[in-house]
Design the sequence.
């Protein structure tokens, strides 16, 4: 059966389902079945696209699609906004987007520029700077920034900042101190990365039995979590299985 014919059937079925779900007159189904590609194109223009424009889920899906096709699009928009209005919020948003895209040098410069005056010890900006420094491999500066953050904001709590601090200690060779931090994160971090990093550092220190116990607990715990959680954490779960296989089952 020709692929063109199969595609036509699939599109017609999809449009027919949309007709029923959206409560539109059922004569649309007959028009779609009779008109094939032409009817599908008309229905797309007059029904589906307008629905997507007014549906938050549709707008979100369209935004994700555009981001996937052009990852720099959002950054360019923010750069234009910053040229029009050089505000703290516009600089912060561009810094966040640069960090997200892995443009760590630009993110570092932007965060450093934000940390002046009344914002000199703003914890969100300091944490962003620490992430940018870590992205550049400067873990000594990362640790220094995080130490300054806590000194200036003793009540500030951030699981991401805590994990970044533990990673910095590990990268700087302060393994026992890093293990102490990871041990806390194994019970408190809202995801599997903290537990995984704790296990891998235990393995690096030739504490294989402890590492296996952490990994097995991680995987057993994940089995009890909702599907959406396992999907979100799948990269760390996969890494945990691989590391456990390397270490061998207890």
Sequence:
């Amino acid at each position: 059966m020709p692929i063109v014919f199969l595609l036509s059937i699939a599109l017609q079925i999809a449009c027919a389902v949309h007709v029923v779900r959206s409560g539109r007159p059922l004569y649309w189904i007959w028009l779609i079945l009779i008109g094939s590609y032409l009817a599908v194109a008309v229905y797309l223009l007059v029904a589906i696209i307008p629905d997507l424009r007014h549906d938050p889920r549709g707008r979100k899906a369209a935004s994700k699609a555009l981001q996937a096709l052009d990852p720099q699009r959002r950054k360019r928009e923010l750069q234009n906004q910053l040229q029009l209005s050089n505000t703290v919020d516009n600089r912060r948003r561009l810094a966040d987007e640069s960090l997200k895209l892995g443009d760590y040098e630009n993110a570092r410069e932007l965060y450093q520029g934000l940390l002046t005056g009344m914002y000199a010890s703003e914890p969100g900006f300091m944490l962003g700077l620490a992430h940018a420094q870590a992205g550049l491999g400067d873990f000594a500066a990362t640790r220094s920034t995080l130490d300054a953050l806590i000194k200036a904001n003793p009540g500030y709590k951030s699981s991401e900042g805590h994990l970044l601090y533990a990673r910095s200690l590990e990268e700087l060779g302060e393994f026992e101190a890093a293990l102490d931090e990871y041990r806390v994160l194994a019970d408190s971090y809202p995801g599997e990365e903290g537990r995984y990093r704790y296990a891998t550092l235990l393995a690096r220190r030739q504490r294989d039995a402890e590492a296996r116990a952490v990994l097995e607990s991680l995987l057993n715990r994940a089995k009890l979590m909702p599907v959406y959680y396992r999907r979100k954490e799948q990269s760390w779960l996969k890494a945990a299985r691989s590391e456990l296989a390397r270490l061998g089952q207890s």
The longest helix spans residues 27-54.
